[in-house]
What does this fold into?
Amino acid sequence: MAEQNDILEEHISSEYKYGFSSDIETETAPPGLSEDIVRFISAKKNEPQWMLDYRLKAYRHWQTMEEPRHWPLLKYPEIDFQNIIYYAAPKQKPELKDLSEVDPELLATFEKLGISLEEQKRLTGVQSNIAIDAVIDSVSVKTTFKEVLAEKGIIFCSFSEAVQEHPELIKKYMGSVVPYTDNFYAALNAAVFSDGSFCYIPKGVRCPMELSTYFRINTSGTGQFERTLIVADEGSYVSYLEGCTAPMRDENQLHAAVVEIVSHKNAEVKYSTVQNWYPGDKNGKGGIYNFVTKRGICLEENSKISWTQVETGSSITWKYPSVILKGDNSVGEFYSVAVTNNYQQADTGTKMTHIGKNTRSTIISKGISAGHSNNSYRGLVRINKGAKNARNFSQCDSLLMSDKCGAHTFPYIEIKDKTAIVEHEATTSKIGEDQIFYCKQRGIDTEKAIGLIVNGYCKEVFNQLPMEFAVEAQKLLAVSLEGSVG
Amino acid sequence: MNEMLSIKNLRAGIEGKEIIKGFNLEVKAGEVHAIMGPNGSGKSTLSNVLAGREDYIVSGGEVSFNGKNLLDMSPEVRAREGLFLAFQYPIEIPGVSNINFLKTAINEIRAYKGIGPMEAKDFLKLIKEKQALVELQGSLAGRSVNEGFSGGEKKRNEIFQMAVLEPTLAILDETDSGLDIDALRIVANGVNKLRSADRSFIVITHYQRLLDYIVPDFVHVLYDGVIVKSGTKELALELEEKGYDWIKKEVVEA
Ligand SMILES: Nc1ncnc2c1ncn2[C@@H]1O[C@H](COP(=O)(O)OP(=O)(O)OP(=O)(O)O)[C@@H](O)[C@H]1O
Ligand SMILES: [Mg+2]
It folds into this structure.
């Protein structure tokens, strides 16, 4: 609360400040997609045969699929999938013993992003420690705090490392929540993913620190296809954070990630995202196409999965973090703030599928549209037959900052069990001239007034974020909405 | 020269309609002026124009505030220069706590004056002190700005904000409307405690009762955008007794 103003102040006049690109030596594959490329990626990563087989199956299936062009409220030119580089990796020694072996340019990149890969140093002034897996151009470059976590039996490493070191876990869980047949982008990801993070919390363990993945697209012309898999075994707890940025480029870059979460009996996973991919310039040129499949399953009773997302970046966002509530008494939550400005487009929301008895889900979505942007909430609440006494509460609010932007709400509700209770509330409002004037009359200028009002509007969602992320989210919001009232 | 506010022949309106039609007023430091007048005579319009609300268009006249041209300033600069408006209808800002709102305001005003942000502990002390001054419940201070406040609570919150921000000129637009008898006394006491040789008030009200508590130096009657009669507190008593008709008649006859 108290810090909010200083932070807004500091950031109010900055534009997209992560837009630099770094001169890191990279190794890239030629553009285009074919079985050879899939084999190339797999070989580069020294993968076992089963992994390659999985990729090839996914690739062949992908070839039979169609891009989801019709149902999302998104307009963008044809994507030429043969013109994308599917593999780019910072050139460095495969095994890093300590930080001194990391390319200094790479370290500098993360320093510029405000992320220190030196353990203990992260986020001065904030109490908690965060273990970070830094992923640049789809390749994990450094995971911090590994040893500390290992003492508790927690596995936190890059996905490629997990394929080598924990094949039984990967084989068991990968694709169990998001199969490669799920959708076009999930299939593409399964075929060409180059890295990502893997996390396993053993039975009864409460992860002592926040786990975090930091994604950065650097190389021009590349797509980023990372994969995250989180498994929380019985009675465990983990809070996971995801951040991302990209350089400013005139081209559109594709990001198609998959995140899978498995929450066992009595386990809880909290997954928070602050998505800040480059949104394109004021005229809509450039920016990231963000097509992401995120899904969790509450596999057994009393398990819980909570998604919190703050989406400010990307030129296009297509993303529906979902929960399958299979276990009895399981709980799914979705808290979202999606901001679009200039010519950004977002079609985002969630799916809550109730299968178990007494399952509960909560959806709180706050859309903010400014400039010429378009912001859609799309959510599905499905109560299957036999999901006795399932409950859902959804609240979808839209805030309009201009006359030229659009806000849309598409709630889909499918109820197959009569005992279900489903509530849906939706509001659309324009940012109040009265509110802004009231603030100004107290000495607060327009930009700050908007920051205050909008942060107030998003409070329910920000309250779900870990402290340092909440602070970052507030800053971002202020920056994203700069000069947006009209 | 101790003129704090000097309004000369002010003309202003909204949506092409002139509402303030040649308004004159001089307020010296330390004075309390009451403005009364029938509904729709332009009292809130005058407040909004002085506070700088953008939808109101000033078509003529001059306003100087502490020797500076008020009409040249943006609303936030007017506030930072020490002008405070207690709104007739205070605005709700959901999700923004009163405390955070005031802290932002204080620090903005301080920054304007070239002073750094207030220390957290000094701020809390200030809040506690002012809360006591207007007998505002602690829970209200922690809640979102005016959200779900009763009508009377909103009014009291305006006075609380005024007490915290310590303006040099406070315009109270019908702050007494909607207050119960106890709240009226508390709000009036709060104002009286803030009265000082270098702070002035413009108190807009329909009721003489408030002026029993906040004793004004002058009472003016606004009618159809101009001051048609000025006097001392006895004028308010006379209005209470006779209503506005006799004044309207005088205006017509003049
Ligand atoms: N936004 C507006 N558009 C058109 N007319 C307006 C607007 N705001 C005020 N007016 C008109 O201006 C006139 C003066 O209104 P104002 O609110 O200043 O009166 P007032 O003296 O404060 O009245 P009250 O005692 O009822 O509060 C009224 O006739 C009102 O209808
Ligand atoms: Mg009025």
Summary: The radius of gyration of chain A is 21 Å.
